[in-house]
Amino acid sequence: MEQNNQLISGVLHQTKSAPNYTLRRYFPSPQLSSLVEQYWLVNWDLPEDSQHVQRNLPDPNCHLTFLPNKCEFLGPVSKVYDYTMHGQNGIIGVKFKLGALACVLPNPIEHYMDTVISMPSFLHCDLAALSKTLSQTDNDKARVHALEQALEPLCGYVKVHHVQQLSALVERIKSNDDIYTVEDLALQSGVSKRTLQRQFKQYIGLSPKYLIRKYRLHTALTLLERHPNDIHHLVNKLDYADQAHLIKDFKNILGMTPGAYIDDI
């Protein structure tokens, strides 16, 4: 079981938030690598009279989460969302690969946008039994093993080629600072703009333009953690035309200006 030690992205005010919880992430076994991007487990133990509200960036991946006596399927998220932690508790989560569930979901992926479904019946596994098993385990290795055993039948439904292609396209967006438009992505990937738009709609439910802006904002938040008082550095580093364009991206995706975000760091 290999731990994922890559930098965490998509968590707002990461430095300030980190002391409130313990997060561990693990890569799937090779047998489930076309289905699962990672397993994530988070625990917190907060004073009785306090709580922590964790804000997160939109997430195009589908998730399956387990809390005591609760199992939920989370579709792609198109807007900033909050989760309130209080007392002593934890979540066990599965982050599915982009496009991996396209042949499993009863409806097109956009039907599940910003949607939560309790105990979904379409994942071809006994989620009630899995929830019980997870509640009786006391270590991460056993929990990940239980998840893999339960989810393995889903691998037979995955169109591996489509998943690999989508993963490569999204990784290209994440890792290339010079991709600002869908035209840039088409040029670098060798995939036509129309094909990109069709594939992202069919398998992710979000447009390539939206995801380019989202991952650009990931970089912006990381830079703000390091340079919280230098908006001009951010504008220049991310090659925005001007500060107004940066502010527009923040407002559209985070619902706030860079200044408001900095005030809360």
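The record above closes out task 2.4. Task 2.5 opens with a second protein, given below.
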Amino acid sequence: MQGLTLTRLTLSHFRSWRHGTVETDGRPVAMHGPNGAGKTNLLEAVSLFSPGRGLRRARAEDLSRRPEALGWKLTGRLDTLGQGHEVTMGAEAGSSRALRIDDKAAPQVALGRIARVLWLVPAMDRLWIEGAEGRRRFLDRMTLSFMPGHADAALAYEKAMRERNRLLKDMVRDAHWYTALETQMSEAGAQLTANRMHALDLITQAQAGAETAFPAADLALTHPDGPLPDGADALRAAWRDGRGRDMAAGRTLLGPHRADMEAHWPAKGIAARDASTGEQKALLVSLILSNARGLARDFGAPPILLLDEVAAHLDATRRAALYDEVCALGAQAWMTGTGPELFEELGSRAHHIEITEQGGESGLLERTP
């Protein structure tokens, strides 16, 4: 299988990085250094090589190094499915993010045609016990990894729903306004739900029969008011019939925007939210690996994986198992930790880099082959 690798990354005035260049050879990248050295900032830079706003969901102006705030720039060489691509992105001070692929201006969604990037960051450790919004965002990231066009459906739905909610708050009663917006919402909303269900099916298939040290979870798409109406016509009818209730609430109460992803651990017969902290982390790692296996089949190459402080809540046995699975998958995983001992099990299978910080500026102190 031809791989997907970011073989060169150059950062300029990005977060804590005044300037830095990382060159890789396709092996996993193990980065260690003290907290605050800039490891997560480097992972964030890699995450921007996929559609969207990256692992912190930051605005373009927030990515510029402070206090200069001169704007920022990233350049990278992506080797994907036997082809090489030069990618440049950045933003001048006060301007929006711009992207060029092979020296041609391109929209963000175009990144989804040449790369897939998945990430696991410490903030996601509360996935199973936080509100539905976090799980919905996680599900949409998985869905987007399989279907880059999912972002277009989400944007269309959210735009139409904002307009409908404005009408509801203003107590507008003209049915014609609602009919037009609900038609847009129903088409985009039905596509959203279909995409999410397809992604869950792909994850389930990737889990089936996989030999892994991490537990698999049964996943389901749910809604607080019971099953969502099936299809665009049913959604449109539900919103039409529910206008009175929605007007009283001042917002749209039913729809894909309130969906949730529930996980059940069949081996123990418990919901993921009832598992221990370590077990919840293991279930989360399992989902990321399943997503990666599914993409290896669907896209033709395993995705780039970003695993920030991946050793947290994993014992030595599971940590070694994770490294073995990443290497067996053939994925380029960028991993961070505070000390080199966290990556001893990788040995020469990884490219080891030490990240340092001095005077508020991140840098590469040394590299080991």
